UniProtKB/TrEMBL annotation:
A Pfam match: F-box-like
InterPro entries the UniProt entry points to: F-box-like_dom_sf, F-box_dom, FBXO4, LRR_dom_sf
Top-level taxon in the UniProt lineage: Eukaryota
Protein name in the entry: F-box domain-containing protein
Membrane-spanning parts: none
CDD domains named among the record's database cross-references: F-box_unchar
Residue ranges constituting the F-box domain according to the UniProt record: 47-93
Single GO biological process annotation from the record: SCF-dependent proteasomal ubiquitin-dependent protein catabolic process
Native organism: Chelydra serpentina (Snapping turtle)
GO CC terms in record: SCF ubiquitin ligase complex
Lineage, highest ranks first: Eukaryota, Metazoa, Chordata, Craniata, Vertebrata
């Protein structure tokens, strides 16, 4: 018959206490999930209760995974599969991840078979994002919108209609070129100037149609990088993106000039623009034209990749960094003609003194505090590399 325990007396343990590897006695409590060792609590190995976290926390953890890792995680269980299909986990649509883009080249000619395989991947990738109702923040693509055979313009339009673009912030779109093309993409006899002009017109028309769609569906764009045709209509549409902070525009066609008034209107109409990168190629027929830039918000200006871009007026009170380079294109002129052209152009130093009071860095060189009062040796060397005026350019070539 078992003995009755006195009040206040602890029950004897059912078994001898466990002993650690160091010989220290340990008392184990069933169901406690921990061990007690000399008054100190140490957690025993156990799984992390991920499913007990709030859904927002689980989604935040999944957001750090790559696209491939998300697809792998979706195979773990049904609960994870449902979470992985949440639209805000699919924020990036990058059609520039494969092929030529990894090689750093603008264009790679591939076999017709490789081109078909790549095109199939593009459509599968688009279906993968649309099936998850992706809510995009970033879109990168490079497709020739003038391609009447593959019809990339229709493909992009359908894709934008199938995903959520209301929160799209970054757009990188090369609408003049498909980087992977088969060698017979331009058959012999189809590259006449007339045919090229018609193709360019198709590209511009499809680009403007696509830009209208972005205005309606993605008004929050803050960063854009794309070729630009500099037509009045395209500029008017581009100015609708009032939240733009960063803008990079590349020249569209070597025979397409830029109207000075249109360039000035663009920079004046974007009140939040901080960074502007321009690749402008001034045609020979427009040699002698100069341009004005006005912006109250612009802090970074890079026109170092432009050719023949000369400024006549700068009103950039917030500008802190400027990159500009004088490019000699090998146009041979006699002295009289050259002086007649250069007499129209203002000295860049005078423009900077009056129009950029907060300039700190000029062509990667930090300016001295007194640069506006007087020039110095290093500053003169920079002006010789960037200014087209008579004082800083004495050559037969322009």
């Amino acid at each position: 018959m078992p003995r009755k325990r006195k009040r206040g007396q602890r029950a004897a343990p059912s078994q001898l206490p466990a002993v650690t590897a160091t010989g220290t006695p340990v008392e184990a409590r069933a169901g406690s999930g921990c061990h007690i060792q000399l008054g100190r609590r140490t957690r025993s190995p156990a799984y992390f209760p991920f499913s007990f976290l709030p859904v927002d926390c689980q989604l935040h953890v999944f957001s750090f995974l790559s696209e491939v890792e998300k697809c792998t995680a979706a195979l773990v269980c049904e609960a994870w599969s449902k979470l992985i299909r949440t639209p805000r986990l699919w924020r990036v649509a990058d059609f520039m991840r494969l092929g030529a883009f990894q090689s750093g080249m603008d264009l790679v000619l591939v076999s017709a078979r490789e081109f078909e395989r790549w095109k199939e991947w593009v459509h599968q990738y688009a279906y993968h994002l649309t099936s998850r109702s992706a809510s995009l923040l970033v879109l990168r693509a490079s497709f020739d919108l003038g391609d009447q055979k593959t019809k990339w313009a229709d493909f992009l339009s359908r894709f934008l209609d199938s995903v959520h673009c209301g929160e799209l912030q970054e757009l990188e779109l090369n609408w003049t070129l498909t980087h992977l093309e088969p060698p017979d993409f331009y058959p012999p006899g189809t590259c006449s100037m007339t045919q090229v002009s018609l193709t360019k017109m198709d590209q511009i028309s499809n680009f403007q149609t696509l830009l209208e769609k972005f205005i309606q569906r993605s008004p929050k764009l803050t960063r854009m990088k794309l070729p630009f045709d500099w037509s009045a209509y395209s500029v008017a549409m581009l100015t609708q993106f009032q939240q733009l902070h960063s803008l990079e525009l590349k020249y569209f066609w070597s025979f397409k000039g830029v109207c000075p008034e249109i360039m000035q209107d663009l920079t004046k109409a974007l009140p939040n623009l901080k960074t502007l990168i321009l690749h402008v190629l001034v045609p020979v027929k427009d040699l002698g034209i100069s341009y004005s830039l006005e912006s109250r918000s612009l802090e970074y200006l890079d026109v170092s990749q432009s050719r023949g871009l000369v400024f006549c007026h700068l009103d950039l009170p917030s500008l802190r960094v400027l990159r500009i380079k004088k490019t000699v294109r090998g146009i041979i002129l006699n002295r009289r003609t050259r002086l007649a052209l250069q007499s129209r152009w203002s000295c860049l130093y005078s423009l900077l003194r009056s129009g950029t009071p907060n300039l700190r860095v000029f062509n990667n060189q930090v300016l001295l505090p007194h640069w506006r009062e007087q020039t110095y040796k290093e500053l003169n060397a920079l002006l010789l590399q960037s200014c087209y005026c008579v004082q800083h350019s004495d050559t037969w070539l322009l």
